[in-house]
Write a structure and sequence with these properties.
The protein contains eight helices and 14 strands. The strands form three sheets. The protein has a six-stranded antiparallel barrel with strand order 1-10-13-12-11-14. It has a four-stranded antiparallel β-sheet with strand order 2-9-7-4, with no helix packed on it. A four-stranded antiparallel β-sheet has the order 6-5-3-8, with no helix packed on it.
Amino acid sequence: MPVPYRSDHLSHFPTLAGMQPPRITVALAWMIGIGIALSALIMAYVPWVQTAIGDGQIVALDPADRAQEVSALIAGRVDRWFVQDGQHVDRGDPIARVVDVDPNLLSRLAAERAQVEAEIAAVRQGQAVANIDVGRMRQLLVEGLVARRDLEQAQIKIADAAAKLAESRAKLNRIDVQLNRQSAQLVRAPRDGRIQQLNAAAGGALVSPGTVLAVVAPERIERAVEIFVDGRDVSLVRVGQPVRLEFEGWPAIQFSGWPSVAQGLFDGRVRGLDPTAGPTGLFRVLIDPMPGKPAWPDRRFTRLGAKVRGWVQMETVSVGYELWRQLNDFPLEFGQARNQTREVAPKNDDEAVLKAGKAR
């Protein structure tokens, strides 16, 4: 019969036999073991909502509701401002008056126009007389009193009068164009809004057509949010997907994988996305409010251009799967996307030939 291990060996080491592990070590070992077991259960059974994260800003859904630049229509200098920064304007209200460098330009253009009109009247009168001469020459040619050359000379005079008349009308059109441009000296607001910025430098300098004089920002707009998503996950973004939004300056607590636990976030849905990337290599996703959900914060707190962070919600997976995907740097919905894009192979050669014929 074998001798017990303790009596056989530990009897030679009385100090070792009397040692006992500290209680704190035992407790720590139990805690580590329980923690590992709980972590395994959490990674296997706790759900996690995959999200595509993007940063962006608040924009106006209608392009006409975005800030618009008011430009000078003619060359000259700003003679007077009718508005100030922050002032509300209605559509058609004057913003500035631009005058030409030459103060007598309008009067000289009017005088030139009157001269051209007189030339046109004289040419028309000469053309009428030339038509009478042509008719008279034809009658005299029939009677044999004049030569054919005289008739041809009269017809040439009619052609010259028509050419002079066309040239005078072209001059008159050019003068009218200049007058119309000079009459556009009063720059008006293109729509209702508030003056956001005045180009004060234009007041003391010469301006050319297209110089920005002011910026009008509309106040009553339909808001939307644009965020920029990485190209790795943008292929999985679909129109109508739910989005959780965190607005700048609005207190919020976000749990990316558990949107139901988050506080202070607002709901939206994907309205559309750009087919190509921007200069930064990111893709723009346009988001509008989700029907039936709480409205977004008031415009006083979320103005145009305010920063926004969005989480486009995808599939629900386990925490362990999401951790594995993050460590391997796979795209969202890795397994589902792979299965959807995999093409089913034909069962036999006849089916392959049939598909090839249909493709042709």
